Amino acid sequence: MSAFPQEDLIKQWTSQQASLKQRLVEGDVEEWQTAPDFKGLERVGGVDLSFIKGDDTSACAQLVVLSFPELELIYEDTQMVTLSAPYIAGFLAFRETPCLLEALQRLERTQPELLPQVIFVDGNGLFHYREFGVACHLGVLSGLPCIGVAKNLLQVQGVTRSQEHLSQISALTKGGDTFPLTAASGRVLGKALRSSDKSTKPIYVSVGHRISLDTAVRLTHTCCRYRVPEPIRQADMRSREYLRTHFPSADTCG
């Protein structure tokens, strides 16, 4: 774990987040992002970390690359990693991004033709305390388009699990329905998405880097066979399976 006192770490990380945020690109930059049926998009990536319950430093870091639109596995990278940074709310990226970035760099060195054209990140992007979550962090450092997809609502910037929020969820009647996550400032930081007809619980989509919110939501919905988009679902399943195989007596969490 880091030897810095937590207050010093928070100051340091806040400064680094602000600096990286200057490089953030919100909006579509690739031709496939605005093309009908995402023509030109062939590879979508997903990243996730799974943990052994009771061990907050050891994790299984997983990268998968799936073909698009088939969503079939074409590459995976599984590594046990030791996380040196502590968990501090709002600064998850400093704990998790280094090992995920290393996985992308290994792929770029060994099989660059399989590098994903967009990455789905299990976590938030702009929908964050300082509008720079783990999906933004990984996107800026990798230079790749990233989408943040959270399974649970981060109550931040005036967005809460209020009665109004629950009513908006109830109004999502079919897969593809959305409503905006609007901060107290009036800025839309993401969208709640009902990802399939069968799932009534929404997921929360936000821009990570080099993509617009509307495109991020549209692509997320396209990649959902179940509630969670397939790249994240595959990354989560495979990292948990690795832990179950190599640590059969341990409980896992992600």
What distinguishing features does this structure have?
single chain, nine-stranded mixed sheet, 254 residues, alpha+beta, 7 helices, 9 strands
Draw up the topology in text.
Blueprint: H1 6-21, H2 31-34, E1 43-52, E2 58-67, E3 73-82, H3 92-110, E4 118-122, H4 134-142, E5 146-150, H5 163-170, E6 178-182, E7 188-193, E8 203-209, H6 213-222, H7 230-246, E9 252-253
Parallel strand pairs: 1-4, 4-5
Antiparallel strand pairs: 1-2, 1-9, 2-3, 5-8, 6-7, 7-8
In words, what does this structure look like?
- With 254 residues, the chain is an alpha+beta fold.
- It is 33% helix and 24% strand.
- The chain has seven helices and nine strands.
- It has helices at residues 6-21, 31-34, 92-110, 134-142, 163-170, 213-222, 230-246; strands spanning 43-52, 58-67, 73-82, 118-122, 146-150, 178-182, 188-193, 203-209, 252-253.
- Strands 1, 2, 3, 4, 5, 6, 7, 8 and 9 form a nine-stranded mixed beta sheet that branches.
- Helix 4 links the parallel strand 4 (118-122) and strand 5 (146-150).
- The relative contact order is 0.18.
